[in-house]
Amino acid sequence: MGNIRLHDKSFRPFIDNDTIEKAIDKVAARINADYKDSEDIPVLLCVLNGSILFTAELMKRLNFKCEIVCVKLSSYVGTKSTGEVRDIIGMTGSVNGRRVIIVEDIIDSGKTIANLTKMMDSSGATETRICTMLLKPGCYKLDLSIDYVAMEIPDDFIVGFGLDYDGLGRNFKDIYVLDENMRYYILFGPPGAGKGTQAASMAERFNLCHISTGDLLRGEMASGSELGLKAKALIEAGELVPDEIVEGMIERKFDTVEGYSGFLLDGFPRTTAQAEALDKMLAKRETKVTGVVSLMIPDGMIKERIKHRAAIEGRADDASDETISNRIKTYHEKTEPLVEYYKAAGVYNEIDGTGTIEEVRGRVNSLMESL
Ligand code: IMP
Ligand code: MG
Fold it and tell me: Structural domain of residue 52, as residue ranges?
């Protein structure tokens, strides 16, 4: 089970299906015990849409005669309760003279349940009990007692097993929680492996801020800044720019960028010292590298691809055979040791970088979805 994306947000696994089913078994057993000798036929009030899956799972475990009536209300827009409950469609049947069990997916502020209880009273129900799959005790502040609770959860936004985020996510059999931690991915590989090409589509698909140290430095060089001039001489010789310069540029990005689910680092870290510096920056933010995506191609292909790119982009560091050879040598000596570094950290993932752009993109996407 990996993270899922719905609209603009990422959700991480929270309660697996097995745990949910067991909790429903227990709550159903309590209801069965309470209603086993009933002479009437109680009504289960399914609160649409969220409660569809829970009502179905609960109902098939009940062993007394019961009927179902549905009602649709809504108080949520996006991930926040509006505080106002709207009656979207009325009840699909009568509860007059009946005992009712309201079956809710989740109780948050309790506004929905308070409304429904009133609605049951005015519709002639003789008794109203409340059964919910999930309760957020941290949010629920009403006196109204809730008779049956399958599971209690903290005050976080969740989806799955009937619950949605703006319409999506109801069909997942497990429950996921909103993942607000920033994610830090490293796109790794030798020069010419296709990092830049893949980074653009990865960044878009996974809402990541793409940080290419090469692009940042080329920006500085083009602007003729002091940093740019310093970098220029080194880059044109196929050498690495000093760590402090690159690290400073990266950390400024971490501090200033907004609206993304995370970062995609492309061309950083390039040395073990930079990897250690990155770990420190992330430790300050109480997090770690989420995953390394390593695109691997054989040495022979590196030159071929770089020459092809030089013809298109005219990059200074792609220009001569000598520069290219030096970059490959620098990669093997200084950057490749990071493979072991990230393997030891348990975040290293390698992908075959050969083949068409689309083929590689397919591999990248399925890996990213599993991280
Ligand atoms: P309440 O009226 O504040 O108790 O909210 C109950 C309704 O809000 C539920 O029936 C859901 O439709 C929605 N809701 C509350 N919390 C969540 C959540 O974490 N995920 C998805 N929907 C939620
Ligand atoms: Mg609901």
Answer: 4-178
